[in-house]
């Protein structure tokens, strides 16, 4: 089975290395014996066949340079495409889909976020740099919106595996048990989580 991962304007929305989430997914998918195709997404037509879309964090200028961003993010939600939106990508996705977000004083620090998706709960660790006070990390429609910047999935491999499981399930397949080859990566992620919270 080949998974198609979409990367939304990777050249502009990668301010904190957010596109590394694609690399984490591709590496873990390969360990599970799955092939991955990574495709750039620049317009609604590019969403065809995308199993999972990653939307990174970008500056105000970067977002201003993207024509029709709100319309495309609304189309992603309408099409119920599984998505991971990071930092300003999460904020823009929320705004494009009429999700109210409360703003306050900017916070820049490592944080722990709790994410509930159905009966699954994830405890996530990452670096937040945002003025939104209520977004944190949420499941919205078919999208994970997170104000935790950068390669979120590198520190939180359980969420990466859930995304792969969900893509496989939508394809009528099942992800095999976690291979031993991922144990070392998981140990590194666990150590990074501990270091981040010291």
Descriptive key words:
198 residues; Rossmann fold; 6-stranded mixed sheet; 7 helices; globular
CATH topology: Rossmann fold
Assigned CATH architecture: 3-Layer(aba) Sandwich
- Classified in CATH, the superfamily is Class I glutamine amidotransferase (GATase) domain
Question: Span from first to last CA?
Answer: 41 Å
Specify the number of helices: 7
Global Rg: 16 Å
In total, the number of domains comes to 1
Instruction: Provide the residue-averaged pLDDT.
Output: 89
CATH class: Alpha Beta
Name the helix and strand elements from N-terminus to C-terminus, one letter apiece: EHEEHHEHEEEEEHHH
Q: What helical percentage do the residues reach?
A: 25-40%
Low-confidence stretches: none
Sheet with the most strands? 6 strands, mixed
Report strand %: 25-35%
SSE class: alpha/beta
How do the strands of the widest beta sheet line up side by side? 2-1-3-4-8-7
**Shape estimate:** globular
Number of strands: 9
Question: How would you describe the overall organization of this protein?
Answer:
Strand 1, helix 1 (20-31) and strand 2 (35-41) form a beta-alpha-beta unit. It contains 7 helices and 9 strands. The chain has helices at residues 20-31, 60-64, 69-78, 88-96, 152-155, 157-170, 183-196; strands at 2-8, 35-41, 52-55, 83-86, 103-117, 120-132, 137-140, 143-146, 148-149. The protein is globular, with a radius of gyration of 16 Å. Helix content is 34%, strand content 30%. The strands form 2 sheets. A 6-stranded mixed sheet has the order 2-1-3-4-8-7, with helices on both faces. It is α/β, with parallel strands linked by helices and 198 residues long. Helix 1 crosses helix 6 (157-170). The protein has a single domain (2-196), classed as Class I glutamine amidotransferase (GATase) domain (Rossmann fold, 3-Layer(aba) Sandwich). The mean pLDDT is 89.
């Amino acid at each position: 089975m080949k998974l198609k991962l979409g990367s939304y304007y990777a050249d502009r929305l990668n301010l904190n290395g957010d596109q590394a989430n694609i690399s984490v997914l591709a590496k873990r998918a390969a360990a599970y014996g799955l092939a991955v195709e990574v495709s750039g997404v620049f317009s609604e037509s590019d969403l065809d066949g995308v199993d999972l879309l990653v939307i990174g964090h970008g500056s105000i200028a970067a977002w201003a340079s993207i024509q029709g961003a709100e319309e495309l993010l609304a189309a992603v939600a309408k099409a119920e495409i599984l998505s991971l939106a990071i930092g300003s990508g999460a904020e823009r996705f929320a705004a494009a889909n009429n999700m109210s977000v409360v703003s306050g004083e900017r916070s820049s620090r490592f944080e722990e976020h709790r994410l509930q998706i159905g009966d699954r709960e994830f405890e996530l660790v990452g670096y937040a740099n945002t003025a939104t006070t209520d977004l944190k990390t949420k499941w919205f429609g078919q999208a994970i919106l997170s104000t935790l910047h950068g390669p979120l999935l590198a520190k939180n491999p359980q969420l990466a595996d859930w995304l792969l499981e969900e893509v496989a399930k939508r394809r009528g397949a099942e992800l095999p048990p976690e291979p031993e080859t991922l144990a070392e990566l998981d140990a590194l992620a666990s150590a990074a989580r501990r270091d981040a919270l010291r």
